[in-house]
Design brief:
With about 55 residues, the chain is an alpha+beta fold. The chain has 1 helix and 3 strands; from the N terminus they run βββα.
């Protein structure tokens, strides 16, 4: 994983692709958007496990 940090943005390269983080919508994802997406993804995963255990 590589990070390139400037004053206005953070660019990350991973095995899955690149991710641009910036407070400006035009330059990349805003940190709040990434936080909400991670909470939604984690919640969906936990909910799916709970439903699988109820069967």
């Amino acid at each position: 994983m590589q990070f390139h940090v400037t004053q206005d943005e953070i660019k990350t390269k991973t095995n899955y692709g690149s991710l641009d983080i910036s407070p400006n919508d035009e330059k990349g994802f805003r940190p709040f958007q990434l936080m909400v997406a991670s909470l939604a993804g984690c919640s969906a995963s936990v909910y799916r496990k709970i439903l699988a255990k109820q069967k």
